[in-house]
Amino acid sequence: MFDLHQPAEQAILVHITFPQEHAREDLDELRMLVSSAGVHAATVVTGPRQTIDARLFVGSGKAQEIAAAVQQYSADVIIFNHSLSPAQTRNLERLCQCKVIDRTTLILDIFAQRARSFEGKLQVELAQLKHLASRLIRGFDNERQKGGIGLRGPGETALETDRRLLRDRISALMQRLDKVSRQRETGRKARQRAEVPVVSLVGYTNAGKSTLFNKLTQADVYAADQLFATLDPTLRQVRFPDFGALIFADTVGFIRHLPHDLVAAFKSTLQETREADLQLHVIDVSDPRLEDNIAQVQHVLHEIDADGLPQLRVYNKIDRAEQDPRIEYDEYDVPQAVYISAQNGVGLDLLSRAIVARLSDRYLSMQLRLPPDALNWRAKLHEAGCVRQELFDENGNCLLHIQLSLALWERLNKQSQALLQSCVLTT
Predict the structure, then answer these.
(1) N or C: fewer beta carbons within 10 Å in the chain?
(2) What's the pTM value of the predicted model, to 2 decimals?
(3) Which of 398, 1, 342, 73 lies closest to 201, judged by CA?
(4) What are the structural domains of the chain?
(5) pLDDT tens digits, one per residue of 205-241
């Protein structure tokens, strides 16, 4: 028998501490990213530095230390917890005789591993190619292409050929993604016509969005204690007691310094977040970087023009922080935050109550009496999913308790030529 098990790549992690706030990264987060990529961290090289070295990013002494670690641990790759320029990457690879990647490339690689749907794979490839296009450099074999008879002249360099092929592939991917985006838009408009509210789950990666999504919808979306466990968006329709149908949308998690090419490529997927009726901002209450994570999520939401939507904060993992489930209200008695444990199912009833409360301001609850000659409207109301209770009296009238959106009520009234309006008993 052959052993088909492939050993994990051995990596040297490099984390440099800078005084500038914009240059700071988190070492624990790098370890989680590396673990999510299926790479084994052999050792971590750290050190303080005031400014970035233009040639090697780190100083020459620290670069020699990294090269020695590569030899000591027989490493396959060096992973920097920072963004490197193409020249810095090339210089480090020459010095250390080892592959060098930065934080952005690592995140793109994880996304490439996680993508399962056709759209997700296209989006990741587009982001990777855009990242690569900005990093193509002149190599040693960048000679002019040879021409035959009738093709004399300078020709095209190998670098120019690579750039042209990249441009062609990027253009083809964008066309295919545009087609998929139009198909997704068709489904979105159908949901809007049905007046079914959409609740989108957003948050920092590994905050527990997929676990919460599974609890709320009884779905089996993959959930794990790792960064970017979920990449492809998932939508499920659920009927809430005393409210009606809701669509929950689980989306990709955000992270510090999420690559801009990745955000741009996933804009069609994140459209569900941009057009949701309510955002559930899932937050890991046990994470010591809680406030910074919240700020990073809000930054990405601003990038995709989704920061102005109604938002309910969901503080998850209260079992780790030893807190009790509760709802926090503002001065107008509107729910602003809910404390739960999605893993243990604690506080989910409070969350359901808060979601209904946040959406109910655009909904009507009323009693109708439909005469026997108007019972065809009973079927239409049931089809719309807005009937909460029904009874029949001795005269054959149907007594209905319904709850529906203002827009759907106005549309039904228009279709019935004010018949339903005359049937209203109480609102």
Answers:
(1) N
(2) 0.71
(3) 342
(4) 10-101 (3.40.50.11060), 188-361 (3.40.50.300), 363-426 (3.30.70)
(5) 888 888 898 888 887 655 555 555 555 667 888 887 6
